[in-house]
Design goal:
20 strands, binds 5'-O-[hydroxy(phenylacetyl)phosphoryl]adenosine, Rossmann fold, eight-stranded mixed sheet, GMP Synthetase, Chain A, domain 3, alpha/beta, four-stranded antiparallel sheet
């Protein structure tokens, strides 16, 4: 197989050249950080006075970590390093869980970000002959405009359809011969259910590929979407603090996500000791943004759990790969003392073919104990007068889950389309225990 590179030089650089590039960019980033109200003091305390204080990557350890809390405390301008008249755009988190975090971009920052998204898209085999329907939220969320600009940069015909409204999405796909879509994995699953419901003829669509990200999903979910829609699905990782999408992306081998090391310095650390974990082991991803002058961010603790691949990729790119995100440090549920990530449940249920495309995890207090309920949709055909097949399936799901997560869950089966669907990131867990403790 031949692999196409957007920029052969940058994507296949030797480790030595990549390191030299990172050091040069880190020096610039540190200079920019020294111009922000937030970093001035901690950098001075670490003896960092200017870019001359950084001479190798080992200097990274001298830089402070940055947390979401820091970003919030710096709202609105604590992390801004250029005059407002040079800022051409801002993006912000929704702020539903507190003060929003805001990231500012200069014109050059937008150009660099667009370059990383274009590189990612092109690496999956897309070209200007593709028609790209961007089925994700536009606005302050970075997924819409980020992919929009990247798609245009590749030269694809971009349809800015935004999220939601499946009927209109099908219409657009049919009218314009969409070949590539971008959405959250949960929306792709929902789209497929709706397609069957509305009797959309799959063979009349030209769809070949999808980019799916912005929320965690398992390998089984990917396989399911690929099989149901008959397309290739590529995992796309990013976060607003590091521009948005275009941080790490799968190539055509679909075996780990290349993290673009000429734009970001990745570290994977143990969340308690803060020490690096060996390749292959899971830890918290920490990222330093090397490609943004307006809002430099150093050693950002993403809370995302992943590990590095030890081996280089067969596609020839030299940028290190990370594993599919396993969850977030703040996602972990403790149920009657047992630690559990929602992704462990998804992995099990999505591998059971009778299970439909949507599910919900509910955790409640039951007296002194915690109770876990897994609600899954199942295909319509099973809801008949005879309840035996339904009960047998319920029992099979329960047993399979229990064997894997060591917790005995209650399982509820629901008709297809009856569990709530969100247009943006899916809400997979409802945990009412915190409220009941108040
Ligand atoms: O979700 C940016 C994005 C847009 C990425 C479109 C990919 C596609 P935030 O809203 O700041 O930004 O959320 C970032 O979402 O820290 C992860 O916890 C999660 N996340 C993003 N991509 C993936 C992925 C955008 N592929 C947070 N797998 C991150 C798992 C993901 N989790």
């Amino acid at each position: 197989m031949t692999y196409q590179y957007w920029d052969t030089h940058l994507e296949t650089m030797s480790r030595e050249d990549l390191t030299a590039c990172q050091v040069a960019l880190l020096r610039k980033t540190v200079s920019a950080a020294l111009r922000t109200p937030f970093y001035r003091k901690p950098l001075a305390a670490a003896g960092i006075r200017g870019e001359e204080s950084v001479t190798s990557l080992s200097d990274l350890k001298r830089l402070p970590f940055t947390t979401k809390h820091d970003l919030r405390s710096g709202f609105p301008y604590g992390f801004l390093s250029i005059p407002q008249e040079r800022v051409v755009r801002l993006h912000a988190s929704s702020g539903t869980t507190g003060t929003p975090t805001t990231i500012y971009f200069s014109k050059d920052d937008i150009t660099r970000w667009t370059g990383f998204v274009a590189r990612s898209i092109y690496g999956t085999g897309c070209t200007r002959f593709d028609v790209f329907q961007n089925m994700i939220t536009y606005g302050l969320f970075t997924g819409g405009l980020g992919f929009h600009s990247g798609g245009e940069e590749v030269g694809m015909t971009v349809i800015p359809s935004g999220a939601g409204n499946t009927t209109r999405q099908f219409r657009l796909m049919q009218d314009f011969g969409t070949t590539v879509v971008h959405a959250t994995p949960s929306f792709l699953l929902h789209l497929e259910s709706k397609m069957r419901e509305e009797g959309v003829d799959r063979s009349r669509l030209r769809l070949k590929r999808a980019f799916a990200g912005a929320e965690p999903y398992s390998e089984d979910t990917r396989a399911r979407i690929e099989e149901l829609l008959g397309i290739d699905v590529y995992n796309s990782y990013g976060l607003s603090e590091m521009n948005g999408p275009g941080v790490a992306f799968e190539c055509q081998r679909k075996d780990g996500l290349h993290l673009w090391e000429d734009g970001f310095i990745p570290e994977i650390i143990h969340p308690d000791t803060l020490e690096p974990v060996p390749d292959g082991e899971i830890g918290e991803l920490v990222l330093t943004c090397l490609c943004r002058e307006a809002t430099p961010i150093l050693r950002y603790r993403t809370r995302d759990l992943t590990g590095f691949y030890a081996e280089p990729c067969g596609c020839g790119r030299t940028h290190r790969r990370i594993q599919r995100i396993k969850g977030r440090t703040d996602d972990m549920l403790i149920i009657n003392g047992v630690n559990l990530f929602p992704s462990q449940i998804e992995e099990v249920i999505m591998s059971i073919k009778e299970v439909g495309n949507n599910y919900l995890i509910v955790v409640e207090k039951d007296g002194a104990l915690d109770r876990l309920t897994v609600k899954t949709e199942v295909n319509q055909a099973i809801f008949r007068d005879d309840t035996r097949p339904l009960n047998a399936l319920k029992e099979r799901i329960r047993k399979t889950l229990q064997a894997s997560i060591t917790i005995n869950p209650k399982v509820e089966l629901h008709e297809s389309g009856s569990l709530p669907v969100s247009e943006g990131k899916a809400t997979r867990v409802l945990d009412s225990r915190a409220a009941s403790r108040l």
